[in-house]
UniProtKB/TrEMBL annotation:
Pfam families, per database record: HEM4
GO molecular function annotations of the record: uroporphyrinogen-III synthase activity
Organism annotation: Peterkaempfera bronchialis
InterPro entries per UniProt: 4pyrrol_syn_uPrphyn_synt_sf, 4pyrrol_synth_uPrphyn_synth, UROS/Hem4
Name of the protein this chain belongs to: Uroporphyrinogen-III synthase
């Protein structure tokens, strides 16, 4: 494999130790949150790492829509609360606390049936002193929605903590079942603060100069595709991912959906954990070309 591209807007890739299951391999990390954790895991296994965030997470602590959602939950507590991410749930309560309504919001949520998308959301709920009645085993919104729709939602209030973007299909299905839906936007996904590294990654992938690209969220995949389209190199990028020159590794099946839609094969672990993603790379990369 050729030496990795040195991005003009990004530091040179980390020079990894010569030993470890990923020694001699270059892995690009596209994450915004918890990027350092993933980078550390990869480096300890010998990988050379290129850090190229393809999106950003923008908190909405001062957002009027979030403030209105907090006020609405306090004024008329929901019957059900759908928690989609741990960071989002904690951010929701932190924003309420900053506005002097943390105790009131916690009391309102304690009266509701709380349902969680997976272990991270469940951990955040329990960490705030609440208990869930359901945690989706597949860690997917589809599972979460299916459980809710199995309940009698006629006339019930359902608060839905969004995770980075509106959830129109999710909320429409709840409304069709008779629920009153209260979306709770805690943060939004946006383009990377510095697009230089992501654009450099587009060129590196198109040239086959990295062995794998690790994705930890759908927006990270979509962000890389967006950068490629802006540069007029989308087809080159996708071709390199499709023909096996570069491995696309996702943290889970939900994360992989934009790759599937683009016809890009991908690998992902059964459990959506950073350590499991790294183990998947350890298993897949040695079997590929040097």
């Amino acid at each position: 494999m050729a030496e990795p591209t040195r991005f003009t807007d990004d530091p040179a890739p980390h020079v990894a130790p010569a030993e470890g299951p990923l020694a001699g391999r270059t892995v690009a990390v596209t994450a915004d949150r918890r990027r350092e954790d993933l980078v550390g895991l990869l480096r300890r296994r010998g990988a050379r790492v290129v850090e190229a965030p393809t999106m950003s997470t923008q908190p909405l602590e001062d957002d009027e829509e979030l403030r209105a959602a907090v006020d609405a939950c306090v004024a008329a507590p929901p019957d059900y609360v759908a928690v989609t991410t741990g960071v989002g749930f904690r951010g929701w309560l932190a924003a309420a606390e900053a506005w002097g309504r943390g105790g009131e919001l916690s009391a309102a949520l304690a009266r509701a049936a709380v349902v969680c998308r997976g272990p991270k959301a469940t951990g955040a709920v329990r960490g705030c002193g609440l208990r869930e009645v359901y945690s989706a085993p597949t860690e997917s919104n589809d599972d979460l929605l299916g459980w809710l729709l199995a309940q009698d939602l006629a006339g019930r209030r359902v608060a839905v903590q969004e995770h980075g973007a509106p959830m129109p299909e999710f909320t429409a299905a709840l409304r069709a079942a008779g629920a009153e839906v209260l979306p709770v936007p805690v943060y939004r996904w946006g383009p990377p603060a510095d697009p230089g590294p992501a654009r450099g990654l587009v060129a590196a992938v198109a040239a086959g100069e990295v062995d794998a690209v690790a994705f930890t969220s759908q927006p990270a995949v979509e962000g890389l595709f967006a950068q490629a389209r802006e540069l007029g190199r989308y087809e080159e990028l996708v071709a390199a991912l499709r023909d096996g020159r570069v491995l696309a590794a996702a943290i889970g099946v939900v994360c992989a959906r934009p790759l599937d839609a683009a016809g890009v094969p991908s690998v992902y672990p059964e459990r959506g954990r950073l350590s499991a993603l790294v183990r998947t790379l350890e298993e897949e990369l040695p079997a590929r070309r040097s």
